[in-house]
Amino acid sequence: MTDDLGMHELARDFGIKVWHGFELLAKLRTAKRVDNNLVREIYEAMENNRDLTKTWVDAKHTIFKMVFGAAKRN
């Protein structure tokens, strides 16, 4: 598991499946190892630390739409 896109490309070259961090978090949520409050706390911490990547932003209202709701349309 890594959010480094370069590592994803390298893994793809070798046929290795790699997850993004949000994919692991989603699996942990599905397995009831983390709850919605913890998902919100993780997103808040990443936003505060300016660590929120585009993939995490995209996942916020797709993968985690049950937590954050669907994306608002302009």
Structure description:
The chain is globular. The mean pLDDT is 95. The protein contains 5 helices and no strands. Helix content is 58%, strand content 0%. The chain has 74 residues and is mainly alpha-helical.
Could you list some keywords that capture this structure?
single chain; 74 residues; mainly alpha; 5 helices; 0% strand; globular
Helices and strands, with pairings:
Elements: H1 5-13, H2 21-30, H3 36-48, H4 54-60, H5 65-68
Termini separation (Å)?
33 Å
Could you give a short account of the major beta sheet? none
Structural class: mainly alpha
Share of helix, binned: 55-70%
What is the string of SSEs from the N terminus onward? HHHHH
Give a quick rundown of the structure.
With 74 residues, the protein is mainly alpha-helical.
